[in-house]
Structures are given as structure tokens and as C-alpha cells.
């Protein structure tokens, strides 16, 4: 489902052009995440850790993908349907900013220094997102 996106990393390596901002492993798109989660589910089913038949898993996963794609297309949404689940799991697995990470540190002289964080980038409009998609498609076509 996301083979082209993952192979672009190897293509960049072979050409000698490294663009971390376009690395699919670092910034996963919905198809890459869905492929990864599907691979995990099917592996768990094959090792009998997931008690469901292969036919049912194929059916439910296919229906989930169809519903997500139709919903995302109908609403012109670029948000991942996995975001609510990831927002719950990521702080548990990786910790959150507010859990035990102070906003300052002490140097050897005992003075504290505030750590300033840059403001988050502004949200992109639909036109900007569509323009970025057109540019990526044009670049792939080259």
C-alpha cells in the first residue's frame, strides 16, 4: 500500500540526495501507517496471538480502509483516523512534555535558565495543502 513512498528513501540514497523532510519513515502518511498497522495485525493473527480467522481479519481491515478512504475523500480531510489512538498511546509509551520534564535547568553556578520553545507553525489552509500535494505529484512525475 505504501511501497512507492518507502522506496523513495532508497531512491534518494542512490541518487545522493537526502531530504529528511520527505522521509516517509520519519513523517508517516496515512497509507504508510495503515500498511504498518495491517502488517502488525496480520502477523499477530498468523502467530495465533490475535484470535480471529484470516478471512474475518481481511474483511474487517478492508472495510476499515474503505470507510476511512471514503470519509477522508468526502470531507476533504487530511487528518489521520489513527490520530486519536496515537494521542492516547504516545504519551504512555514515550512520556509527555509535562511529565517530569522541567522547563528550566541549573548550571554549575546554580542559576536557572528558561528554555524557550518556538511557537508552533500556523495551520495550513486547504489551498496550501492542495498546492503541496500538486508539487509532490509533479516532482514524482519528473
3D architecture notes:
With 142 residues, the chain is mainly alpha-helical. The protein has helices at residues 3-15, 30-46, 54-75, 83-94, 126-141, and strands spanning 104-106, 112-114. A two-stranded antiparallel ribbon has the order 1-2. β1 and β2 (112-114) form a beta hairpin. The longest helix is centred in the middle third of the chain and has 22 residues, at 54-75. It is globular. Residues 99-114 have low confidence and may be disordered.
Write the element-wise H/E pattern from the N-terminal end onward.
Answer: HHHHEEH
Helix-strand makeup class: mainly alpha
The number of helical runs is: 5
Give the beta-strand count: 2
Q: What helical percentage do the residues reach?
A: 55-70%
- With strands numbered from the N-terminus, the spatial order across the biggest sheet is 1-2
Regions with pLDDT < 50 over 5+ consecutive residues? 99-114
Tell me, briefly, the overall form: globular
Radius of gyration (Å): 20 Å
Instruction: Name the beta content range.
Output: under 5%
Main beta sheet: strand number and arrangement? 2 strands, antiparallel
Average the pLDDT over all residues and give the rounded result: 77
Distance between the termini: 22 Å
Family: Belongs to the TMEM38 family.
Region (Disordered): 99-142
GO cellular component, one term: sarcoplasmic reticulum membrane
Main location: nucleus
Identify the notable features of this structure and list them briefly.
globular; mainly alpha; two-stranded antiparallel ribbon; 142 residues; 56% helix; 5 helices
Amino acid at each position: 500500500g505504501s511501497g512507492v513512498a518507502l522506496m523513495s528513501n532508497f531512491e534518494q540514497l542512490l541518487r545522493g540526495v537526502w531530504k529528511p523532510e520527505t522521509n516517509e519513515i520519519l513523517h508517516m502518511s496515512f497509507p504508510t501507517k495503515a500498511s504498518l498497522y495491517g502488517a502488525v495485525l496480520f502477523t499477530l493473527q498468523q502467530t495465533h496471538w490475535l484470535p480471529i480467522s484470516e478471512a474475518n481479519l481481511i474483511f474487517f481491515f478492508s472495510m476499515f480502509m474503505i470507510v476511512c478512504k471514503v470519509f477522508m475523500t468526502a470531507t476533504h480531510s487530511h487528518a489521520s483516523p489513527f490520530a486519536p489512538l496515537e494521542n492516547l498511546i504516545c504519551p504512555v509509551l514515550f512520556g509527555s512534555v509535562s511529565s517530569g520534564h522541567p522547563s528550566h535547568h541549573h548550571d554549575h553556578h546554580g542559576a536557572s535558565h528558561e528554555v524557550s520553545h518556538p511557537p508552533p507553525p500556523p495551520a495550513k489552509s486547504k489551498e496550501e495543502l492542495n498546492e503541496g500535494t500538486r508539487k509532490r505529484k509533479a516532482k514524482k512525475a519528473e
